[in-house]
Task: inverse folding
C-alpha cells in the first residue's frame, strides 16, 4: 500500500494521534507517496466529465492538500485557480509542486500549463470567499467532516460560487455488504470511533458516513440543484452499475 518513500508505521501512528490539521502537517512531505492522494485515473475521469460542463474561468479546490484537484482545475479554468486547505504543511508542498510561472523550469511537472494558483489557508467550514467561482471541486476529504458538519460545509461552498456555478466531486459506490472492502471500511471506522472516544485531540476520518442519500439531501438543503453523472472511465460493478459517479451540484 505504501512505497518506500511513504511514511513509516511509526510516523503514521504519531500522525493518527494528532489533530487532523497537525496530522496532515506531519504527513505533508510524504503525502504524495501515500494512497491518500487521489489517484491520477480518478482525476482524469473527473476532468473528462467536468470539461463537458464548461467553459470555466475561475475554480476552487476545497481541501486541496498537495494540489491534486488544483491540477484538474488548471486544465479546465481559463483565468484563476485557488486551492484552500487548513494544513500549512500541505499548502507548503502544494506551493512547491505548482511554483509561480517565473520560477518554473520549462519541463516542469505537475505544474504544466494553466492559470496561476493562489493558495489560501482556511477552514473549509468557514470559507473566506465572495461568491466568485464558476467551479468548485473536492477530492478525498469528506471523511474528515462529521455528518452534522456536512450541511454547513456545502453551504460554505454554495456561498463561494457565483449563480450558475457548479460544485462537483466523485462519489464511489459502497462496497457490497459482506465483501472484503465492506469489512475493511467497517473495521477502520470502528477503530477510529474507539480512538476518538479515548484520545484527544480527535482525528475525524470515517469512510462510511458520506452516504449518497444523505449527501444529496444536504446539498439540496444548501440550495443546490443536484444531478449524478456516471464516471464511465472508472468501470462498472458486476450488476452493471457505475463504480463511481460525479455529483454535479449547481447554484441556480
Ligand atoms: C486526504 S487529503 C486530500 C487532499 C487532496 N484533495 C487529494 O485528493 O489528494 C484531505 C485534506 O483535507 C484537508 N482538510 C481536512 N479538514 C479540513 C478543513 N476543515 N478545512 C480545510 N482543509 C481540511 C486536510 O488538511 C488534507 O489536506
Result:
Amino acid at each position: 500500500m505504501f512505497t518506500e518513500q511513504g511514511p513509516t508505521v511509526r510516523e503514521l501512528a504519531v500522525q493518527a494521534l494528532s489533530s487532523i490539521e497537525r496530522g496532515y502537517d506531519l504527513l505533508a512531505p510524504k503525502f504524495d507517496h501515500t494512497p491518500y492522494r487521489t489517484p491520477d485515473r480518478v482525476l482524469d475521469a473527473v476532468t473528462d466529465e467536468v470539461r463537458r460542463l464548461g467553459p470555466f474561468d475561475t475554480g476552487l479546490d476545497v481541501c486541496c492538500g498537495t494540489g491534486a484537484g488544483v491540477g484538474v482545475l488548471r486544465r479546465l479554468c481559463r483565468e484563476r485557480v485557488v486551492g484552500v486547505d487548513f494544513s500549512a504543511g500541505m499548502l507548503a508542498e502544494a506551493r512547491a509542486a505548482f511554483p509561480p510561472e517565473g520560477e518554473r523550469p520549462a519541463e516542469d511537472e505537475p505544474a504544466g500549463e494553466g492559470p496561476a494558483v493562489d493558495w489560501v489557508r482556511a477552514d473549509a467550514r468557514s470559507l473566506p470567499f465572495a461568491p466568485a467561482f464558476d467551479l468548485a471541486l473536492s477530492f478525498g476529504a469528506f471523511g474528515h467532516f462529521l455528518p452534522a458538519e456536512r450541511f454547513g460545509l456545502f453551504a460554505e461552498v454554495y456561498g463561494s460560487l457565483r449563480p450558475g456555478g457548479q460544485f462537483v466531486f466523485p462519489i464511489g459506490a459502497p462496497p457490497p455488504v459482506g465483501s472484503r472492502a465492506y469489512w475493511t471500511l467497517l473495521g477502520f471506522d470502528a477503530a477510529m470511533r474507539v480512538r476518538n472516544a479515548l484520545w484527544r485531540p480527535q482525528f475525524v476520518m470515517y469512510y462510511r458516513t458520506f452516504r449518497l442519500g444523505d449527501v444529496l439531501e444536504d446539498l439540496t438543503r444548501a440550495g443546490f440543484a443536484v444531478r449524478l453523472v456516471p464516471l464511465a472511465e472508472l468501470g462498472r460493478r458486476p450488476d452493471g452499475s457505475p463504480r463511481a459517479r460525479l455529483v454535479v451540484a449547481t447554484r441556480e
In short: The first helix runs from residue 9 to 16.
